[in-house]
């Protein structure tokens, strides 16, 4: 199977995951949620988004895994997913949370993740 299908599914999955995990914070900043919003409603909204995350994550892992005809080992899938996750989160935080500035250590950490991808494929 084409590895780009797996990567695309992982990107879509991580977009949903990031909104499920952190989107409620932005909605609170936008005054859509308030301190009075019950936590269970925020959790249910996040679970609803997480359903879509899983609708892309599970196929990405199944199709991408070498044991199912894909091109990635389990370790490679996980490391690629982590790099995609931190990339999506970084874009999310820079665009939606404009007060979150990237620091030099963030770039160093990202380089370390890229190195992790390099080494896991060796």
TrEMBL record:
InterPro entries, per database record: DUF486
Pfam families per record: DMT_6
Transmembrane parts of this sequence: 7-25, 37-56, 77-97, 103-121
Keywords assigned by UniProt, alphabetized: Membrane, Transmembrane, Transmembrane helix
Coiled coil: none
Domain of life: Bacteria
The protein's name: DMT family protein
Lineage: Bacteria, Pseudomonadati, Bacteroidota, Bacteroidia, Bacteroidales
